[in-house]
Design goal:
With 399 residues, the chain is mostly helical. The protein has a single domain (3-392), classed as Glycosyltransferase. It has 13 helices and 11 strands. The strands form 5 sheets. A 3-stranded antiparallel β-sheet has the order 5-8-9. The chain has a two-stranded antiparallel ribbon with strand order 1-2. Strands 3-4 form a two-stranded antiparallel sheet. A hairpin with a 4-residue loop joins strand 8 and strand 9. Helix 3 (51-62) runs antiparallel to helix 4. The longest helix is centred in the N-terminal third of the chain and has 21 residues, at 118-138. The radius of gyration is 19 Å and the shape is globular. The protein starts with a helix and ends in a 16-residue tail after the last strand.
Length: 399
């Protein structure tokens, strides 16, 4: 398989037009709408071979930004659904009312690195400013400098075992039971009008390690974007907020050399080993010594994360591990991308290269699938799934 050519063909096949807007669906037969962090990934991938489409992907997501600054995680551009994907009643026409990991500044910055288009930066900056301000204010009601999520879907990892405890679910469960609990949250959030501080305090409030790690990296890049367009005060503000989150993660999440997601008003740690423990590498918030211990003791540990096709999304020694259980064990190229970038941040280029080779091998073996069995590389979930294109970006350190 010519991977670059196959990726280009996949993105053309998954492209959709709605009036003046253009976007990419993650998988036509399974995910027929537009998703927020998927579109950020799409822009990153498209920046390597179709810069115009990369920008269009950004503009389409920004069009449905809420007045309070939030960007919804789903847009129903085409309301006809010819797939089995459920149409969820969010209480708002045309979009969901929750968000996803804030990868937007990273995607915009990567595009800017290619053509240095200041006009593009200026056109999207107000949207970025209000989105990240929304997260900093509305999702941190206790002003502890940790960003909260009010539904597991906001993590991008719907049924990850990190959320079993705050959802009051057992370690062993069905996807149906998990989905029912998450949909119950949606109904509760409709009742509280998606008032984030109130909804989190009363129903579900997780401070997730990957979400906050992504926030740190993106705030740093948002500061760079602000500098480029002479918004120096904003640049200082966002840089300081990135540092504040980094320090808060160390204060509230770190224990036994691992950063754990927390939940509730008391910031109780959720001690479940998932790929999330490696997210701080991506944010550059740990020391070199801590990074080495994380890689040696956990990533390269064959009893935890170093499988034939790494990196499983849940550690092998967790009771919740399931090699075909959506986010409960399979390998996802998206998670691998974050880990790959994080490893390069700390000079672990050999390990990063192994993860890149494994990710490529999965696609060569099983095609552009949603996720993969970490032992045998069998493709699972959706077909013609766009995230596999992130392997094209592995090896590129523009940000």
């Amino acid at each position: 398989m010519n991977l670059n050519l196959a990726c280009r063909q996949l993105f053309i096949a998954n492209r959709r037009l709605k009036g003046k807007f253009q976007y990419t669906v993650p998988a036509p037969a399974t995910y027929p709408y537009q998703w927020f962090w998927d579109s950020c990934f799409h822009s990153i991938i498209l920046s390597h071979f179709d810069l115009i489409s990369a920008k269009k992907e950004i503009f389409s997501i920004l069009f449905r930004q809420f007045q309070n600054g939030m960007i919804p995680h789903m847009i129903y551009w085409d309301k006809t659904n010819k797939t089995n994907f459920p149409r969820i009643s969010w209480g708002k026409d045309g979009t969901s009312t929750i968000t996803q990991p804030p990868m937007l500044a990273y995607a915009v910055w990567q595009i800017f690195q290619i053509d240095k288009d200041i006009i593009f930066l200026k056109s999207v900056y107000p949207h970025l400013y209000h989105f990240y301000k929304y997260l900093l204010i509305e999702r941190d009601p206790h002003e502890k400098h940790l960003i909260g999520i009010m539904n597991p879907d906001e993590s991008g990892e719907d049924n990850s075992p990190r959320f079993d405890l705050p959802l009051n679910l057992p370690v062993k469960q069905t996807l149906k039971a998990n989905t029912e609990q998450r949909l119950r949250l949606v109904k509760q959030n409709i009742e509280c009008h998606f008032d984030a501080p109130f909804c989190m305090r009363n129903f579900f409030w997780v401070k997730d390690v990957p979400f906050n790690s992504i926030m740190v990296t993106n705030l740093k890049l948002l500061a760079e974007i602000a500098k480029k367009i002479d918004q120096d005060e904003d640049a200082d503000y966002f840089a300081k907020e990135a540092e504040a989150i980094s320090l808060a993660m160390r204060e509230f999440m770190l224990e036994d050399d691992i950063f754990w997601s927390t939940y509730g008003e008391n910031y109780k740690k959720i001690k479940v080993k998932t790929w999330a423990i490696f997210a701080p590498l991506y944010a550059k918030i740990i020391t070199q010594g801590e990074a080495k211990k994380l890689v040696d003791d956990h990533l390269l540990n064959k009893n935890e994360f170093w499988t034939n096709f790494p990196v499983p999304t849940t550690s092998l020694d967790e009771p919740s591990f399931d090699p075909s259980g959506f986010w409960r064990g399979p390998t996802w190229v998206g998670a691998n991308w974050f880990i790959y970038k994080g490893l390069l941040n700390y000079g672990f280029s050999d390990v990063a290269e192994e993860i890149k080779k494994s990710s490529v091998a999965l696609i060569q073996k099983s095609g552009f699938r949603e996720y993969f069995n970490p032992f045998i590389g069998e493709g699972l979930g959706a077909q013609n799934f766009t995230w596999g294109g992130l392997v094209i970006d592995m090896g590129q350190q523009r940000a």
